[in-house]
Amino acid sequence: MTLQWTAVAFFLYAEIVFNLILCIPFISAHRWHLVFRWRIWSWLSPYWNKFFFAMIMALVVLFCDAIRDVQKYSGPEPVHDAQASPNLYDHVHMKLFRAQRNLYICGFSLFLWLVMRRIVTLLNQIAETSVNTAGLQAQMDNAFKTAERHQEDNQILKTALLEREQSSLKTNNQLKLEIEKLQSQLKVAGEAVRRSDAEVEAMKKQAKGLAHEYDRLLREHHLLQNLQSAEDKKDQ
């Protein structure tokens, strides 16, 4: 195995191990998100995309080279030449086996490289979604508590309004009763005033009659005095 295919094989083994580590169930996506946000990763993040696409280009080139070797050693001419010599036949099949092996190694490396990138992206998205979900859940809980508090306040206000309405109804009923009482007292007072006016009129009439009677008696008294004085003069 040449140096380049040895490097691709080790890269494939590293991808397998890293993908298996990413798939460990007891390591949550939030922890992976914290790992991916370390300072060293934030420092390497500008170069990560370039490295990713560079590896894709290198693996694609090696994959195409492996396809070319497979087509080269599986064509009719190498097989026809190998049938003439047994040693050449084994050599051609060995080359074909190596080309197919390199093809599989490079293909799986390219596939796992894309899968690893997708897994890392999904883990970050799941972690961010969980954080956003936790924030939304906290907001929903706060909104629910606020709604409950407003509902309690509304209930308290409704109770206060009902009590105020009841007290106002009681006050209005008391005022109506007092008004009716005052109206009845006013009627009684009016009747008393009318009776008083009638008695005053009667007393005025009686006083006028007494004044006339007093004047009459006074005239009679003067007449009697005059008669008596006249009789006294005659007797003398």
Provide an overview of this structure:
By secondary structure, the chain is an all-alpha fold. It has a domain at 3-161. The chain is 94% helix and 0% strand. α2 crosses α5 (86-235), α3 runs antiparallel to α5 (86-235) and α4 runs antiparallel to α5. The N and C termini lie far apart (198 Å). The mean pLDDT is 80.
Summarize the structure.
By secondary structure, this protein is mainly α. 94% of the residues lie in helices and 0% in strands. It is built from five helices and no strands.
Residue-averaged pLDDT: 80
Q: What structural class do you assign from the helix and strand content?
A: mainly alpha
* Rg, nearest Å: 63 Å
**Which regions have little confidence, pLDDT < 50, spanning 5+ residues?**
none
Termini gap: 198 Å
H-E string: HHHHH
The main sheet comes to: none
Q: What does the overall shape look like? A: rod-shaped
Measured by DSSP, the beta-strand proportion falls in under 5%
Which bin fits the share of residues in helices?
A: over 70%
What is the number of helical segments per DSSP (H or I, 4+ residues)?
5
Would you count the extended β strands for me? 0
